[in-house]
Amino acid sequence: MSKPTGKAHRKRKFRANPAFQDRKRLDSPLGQVEVQLPASLAAKEEILAQEVADAAGWLLDELGDFRVIRKNLDARRRPVKAVWTVDVAQKGHVLPSLEFPGWSAPPLSSDAPEIVIVGAGPAGLFAALECLEQGFRPIIIERGASVRQRRRDLVRITQDHHVNPDSNYCFGEGGAGTYSDGKLYTRSHKRGDIRSALECLVAFGADPAILVDAHPHIGTNKLPEIIQSMREAIVNAGGEVHFGCRMVDVHEETGSVKAIEWLELSTGITVKRACEALVLATGHSARDVFLLLHGKGWQLEAKPYAIGVRVEHPQALIDQVQYHGEERGDWLPPASYKLVCQVDGRGVHSFCMCPGGIIAPCATEQEQIVTNGWSPSKRNNPYANSGMVVQIDHEIWEQAGFEGPLGGLDFQRMVEQACWAAGGKTQRAPAQRLLDFLAGDEGRVSRDLPTCSYVPGVVSVNLRALLPASIAKPLVEGLRTFGRKMPEFLHPDAILVAPESRTSSPVRIPRDPDSLEHPDVSGLYPCGEGGGYAGGILSAALDGTRVVQKLALKRSLNRSK
């Protein structure tokens, strides 16, 4: 970005700021500054240039090129401020290029070792890309359909209330992340090279803005093309991708993986393929995988997770609240929120907040209701939805009579089946106005329900009576607390849709902290959300990459012995 010229340049040559002369100058012709200005002005190049020059301690005439490398918003008070980190160059100097090459991998040898990867979600796809960079031939087994064919199965859920147990919002190319907004931020910066992962997504078609935005997202409408590009690159580089193939068995000898079996769903043929390294990237909803490993006596661990509801408001209301009544022009994105509190020592919090979003039916079996949220890239739908969930641990599921490593999973299934029955044994979901959920000591059935983005439809139900008390009671107190923090949150047209139950895996597949292999089976590498080691697209992608790097290190060490 170059500084403006002409009338605007001459008009704002000097800033009317008596403290300007005392401002510290950058001690280098190349540097980095932070600017803060009203969001409505940040997109005006001549104003931004003056702010950048001021922050550097330079006159506008001294400013050469500059580029914004980080964007954030400060909406704590009015006016909402843009907080931008900017690389700057003094006139006569050039900023270093930030260009990066598209993804490529070295040619595979004809005898390249094969690595079988189960699951084509973010963990599986990034594991495959890393395999190719390490000289391995990835063999991806995915139970669901390709992104294009998968859409037909999603339509059948919303229109016909039919759930394909192998191809749905959770299973299929790209995994659950394909249809869940495409959020790309993670709270853990120890998982791997976040910048490299984001650049990889850009190389396959993501908007370069994800490299700059503080809370980047791709959008459900954009993700399918990116994922398809990844798959095509993997195949063109020598990998294999098999859709409609469900893993049914893993064979081991003397404590090591030896082969995998999968069922070709279209033919009914079972295929057995030898392998010495198997990456499990099956996602948090592949319950059959947990049952398979449990049946073999291999270690599993019950893992805390969260269950609750989806809450939906008019997006215009959330904008008004979060932006303090300030008009949301083109310079402000649809507003989001993050709410958290403790109720009797148990966390209650918002989850996967989707501005301008849709509530989606995400069941993976016919006799269950599961909800999630997603947004298109523009986040331009009239509703804002978010999970409102309660932390679930062994105390809750053991009180309900579920024990062992699958106790949390069994509790989760119980809630989903109860909601399915309450909704009329279709994909219509039980729902309630927020104010009716909070009414009195027991809540009340809503006489009518507001318009809702959940396409299969909703049924008026008293969720206070439907959900287990261990969920309902903390949720009531949590929502009341959020209403005190943000009074407009308790809006008459706010609606709760149940359940939000797939926040994360209820099971962890243990792995050695150094080798990342399962402690009982050498060559078996659990990873991603299904293994219990990630909580979103980016963290899953980083974990898939990390697992293959560990696998490569092991093979390298074995060859050197």
Report on this model:
This protein has helices at residues 7-11, 39-42, 45-56, 122-133, 147-160, 194-203, 223-236, 287-295, 315-322, 394-399, 407-422, 434-438, 463-466, 469-485, 528-531, 537-560, and strands at 30-38, 63-74, 81-90, 114-118, 137-141, 240-242, 245-253, 256-264, 269-274, 278-280, 301-302, 305-314, 340-343, 346-354, 358-361, 371-374, 383-392, 429-433, 458-460, 495-500, 507-508, 524-526. The chain has 561 residues and is an alpha+beta fold. It has three domains: 7-90, Alpha-Beta Plaits (2-Layer Sandwich), CATH 3.30.70; 114-300 and 521-560, 3-Layer(bba) Sandwich (FAD/NAD(P)-binding domain), CATH 3.50.50; 303-500, no CATH class. Strands 13-14-17-12-20-18-19 form a seven-stranded mixed beta sheet. Strand 13 and strand 14 form a beta hairpin. The protein is globular. The termini are far apart.
In short:
Helix content is 29%, strand content 24%. The chain has helices at 7-11, 39-42, 45-56, 122-133, 147-160, 194-203, 223-236, 287-295, 315-322, 394-399, 407-422, 434-438, 463-466, 469-485, 528-531, 537-560; strands spanning 30-38, 63-74, 81-90, 114-118, 137-141, 240-242, 245-253, 256-264, 269-274, 278-280, 301-302, 305-314, 340-343, 346-354, 358-361, 371-374, 383-392, 429-433, 458-460, 495-500, 507-508, 524-526. The strands form 6 sheets. It has a 7-stranded mixed sheet. The protein has a 5-stranded parallel sheet with strand order 6-5-4-10-22.
